[in-house]
Amino acid sequence: RGAHAAQGPIVLGQGAGYIPRNFAYDTARAYTSHASLNNPRLCAGCHVNSFQVTDAATGAFVLTSVGHLFSPDPCLDPTTGEPVADNSCAYTPSSTRNWTGCLAAGCHASADVASSALIARRSLTANLADQLWNDINPTLNSGGAPYMDAGDAGALVTLLFTAGNPSVGGIQAFNANDNVVSPAEGALFNVMMLAEDLYDHNDGSYGVHNPFYYQALLAASIAEVQDVYAAYLPALKPEVKALVEQGLKLPGVTYAPPASTKLSAAR
């Protein structure tokens, strides 16, 4: 993914993504996870760790994996126990993965704890992202901005196709040529950056790099879209509204609805 992705700023909880109006994420007060004092090596703390591979039958030493795959929990060859580049094995605390990267800093007591946390955050991220854009059939995507198609779901899809790409305060929800980033376009950028399968240069961590920044930024994106385009969107379902409110009440997070629906062209 290289320089196109935002892993570093997301880990630090600053400078990543479109920042909704009246939203702030105070890194001095907000929860920290993988950028905390428990992990002073930052990226390397999770991604570059050594572990010994032993023979399953005899227990004899085979080799020391030094972490050059840059995977925090690499898949293992089921026969030799050696790490492999293929990362398609399940995220379960079984012999198919080595969880040293998640355990080395002392934040997670066991592979079970680390796996459960990953699965929970992955599910939460997908739930929030789907409220903005649920790419139901990726094969229908146009391949150009704003990427969505009429068969998808989510608030941004509703604005583009059902509401006819409305303007609020003289600013169209989606317009690649007006030199203005609307709340809809900003939310699209954020969901493509944070969702699992919407863009091949996304963060790619399923929410793990910074679970709290993920939740707060997606929640604020949803809230701003709902506030600015309220006339064109249905109200959030109670269970989704609860998730959004939870994200906006995290320590160090503030969000206030726009004072009016008039948008600044200077944005």
Overall shape: it is elongated
The CA-CA distance between the termini, in Å, is 28 Å
What percentage of amino acids are in beta strands? Answer: 5-15%
Helicity level: 25-40%
N-to-C order of helices and strands:
HEHEEHHHEEHHHE
SS element count, helices: 8
- Biggest sheet character: 2 strands, antiparallel
Indicate the structural class.
mainly alpha
Strand order of the largest sheet: 1-6
Low-confidence stretches: none
- The tally of strands reads 6
Mean pLDDT: 89
Radius of gyration: 21 Å
Briefly say what this structure is.
By secondary structure, this protein is mostly helical. It has helices spanning 7-12, 43-47, 100-103, 111-132, 155-162, 183-194, 211-228, 238-248, and strands spanning 23-25, 51-54, 61-65, 167-168, 171-172, 253-255. It has eight helices and six strands.
Structural description of this entry:
It is built from eight helices and six strands; from the N terminus they run αβαββαααββαααβ. By secondary structure, the protein is mainly alpha-helical. A hairpin with a 2-residue loop joins strand 4 (167-168) and strand 5. Helix 6 (183-194) runs antiparallel to helix 7 and helix 7 (211-228) packs across helix 8 (238-248). The protein is elongated, with a radius of gyration of 21 Å. The two termini are 28 Å apart.
